[in-house]
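Hey, can you fold this?
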Amino acid sequence: MPALESRRSRAPELEPLLAAALERQPRALARAVTVLESGGEDQRRLLERIYPRVGRARVLGITGPPGAGKSTLVDRIARSYRQRGETLGILAVDPTSPFSGGAILGDRVRMQSHYTDPGVFIRSMATRGAMGGVARATRDAVDLLDAAGFDHVLVETVGVGQDEIDVVRTVDTVVVVTVPGLGDEIQAIKAGIMEIADIFVINKADRQGVASTRRDLESMLSMAEALPRRPAIIETIAHRGSGIEELIAEIDRHAEWLRESGDLAVRRFQQLRLRVETILQERILAAADRALGLERELQVAWERGEDPYTVAYRLFAGALEVGVVEGR
């Protein structure tokens, strides 16, 4: 009962917070994102309230290896959208600090020129150990910015590699950024990112090796299995603004193709499946830990030499028992 009373006592606080966030008040949006990151009952209730409003914003993912100039590219994309009179929210997913657990890079450092623009909201989010370079609460935060009426939501993710495949299940359009002269990084793209890219960007195209990088990408695309839409390759020099309008035009073309082909609905259904599966996994694991104690059971299994299936089935049975007792 005390826990229930605590939840009820906090509940009214969400109403004014939600109202202010939906009006795109920066402080309220920041606090609401924190609620979503923190998890628990408030996270669930907040998402439940905003979810009927989602589905209008275009959701764009920017990914690529460190040093490819993703943040500068996002800054230029933001300028272009604002010149068109469109609003956008930016979620910059940064590496988690091993000491504080927070994002190492701050939003003010990334894009100071947009800080006072009421049509732009920028938030850094820490991965907190999540796979795929996307914070656990990133998709919830995308929903929040969508519900608040932003025309575009941009998600800039960490790194590039096999785990980054999750980004395609979080956004509508995936832009993979590389630069000339990365060498082995192209192989990393081939290994893990080729299947999810909707658009390739060769940034810092004023460097030597642009033609070689383009040939590598085109060669990989030619060897790929049949794709529903061949990814375009755009060359940019983000710090100069070169190639940005061509990139924006390609992003627009891809958004139109998503709608006309019906692939947008397919992708968003897959996103829903991923989120539900993730929530189920977390709840089952938490229930098993409450019922038997995950660490204790692992220690017992280690000492007995038990196989992982036996341990997992025992923990799952404990999770079911907790679910029955607690009515969840």
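Oh, and this one too while you're at it.
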Amino acid sequence: MSNSDQHAFWNGDAGQTWARGDARMAALLAPISEALLDHANVGAARSVLDVGCGGGSGTFLLAQRLAPDARVLAVDISTLLLDVAQESLQRQEASGPSIRFAEADAAVHDFGGERFDLLFSRFGVMFFSDPTGAFAHMRSAMRSGARLAFCCWQALPQNPWTALPLQAALRVLPPPPKPGPREPGPFAFAEAAYVRAILEDSGWVDVDITPRELELFWPGDHLEDATRQLLNMGPVGRLLIPASDEERDAVYAEAVSVLGEHYRDGGLRLSGATWLVTARSD
């Protein structure tokens, strides 16, 4: 999927679905955000570029770790998700780091004379059509010695929170065209060696890639509710967009049977396997 395709996707039906479900997604991903922030120790940063900020929940967690005089430029290509972020920003207290949300494709955006000492992203850097070029371009907006910290998903089979719903959906729906193993998308950075090569080829040094597996919690008053909410996001949500109501109901029923054993204490509990990636600009 090219960058133009990504722009159309995140500003279309899928973007609307993610915008509506942003609060749930924020809760789901909060433990991963905290793990990345702990791992990267970002507190010394004073000027941060947050790439693929979505609805801003990760940006706000990041800001809590920064000094009051720090500033954050958070960018995304989805105007729908940025609207969510702006609304959340208006509800934030005025004190603390300066946060600015902007519509921009970080792979090609002209940052002018603005320079950053931290490039941060929570699941926002796996969608570039030319990842090496994108990371080289973003590095050009960094100060010497600036740091990089992002998280990305390991391979689909290591992520039951997505693999199990997808398994259920494909019992009902025809399979989509099989993507290439490194095609832009949620699991494009599944191979640690590939991620390392991208960063080193684009000029980053001291690359460290650490595996981290966490339990993800998807709340719901009952199994059916949590299952429907989970399936409407991610790869399954994309498959459901053109599906009929009957097909959607059949997918939900299959998923309930697959996910039932994972529902307890008010929600679905499924493991998610990530890479925590850090590096430095030479």
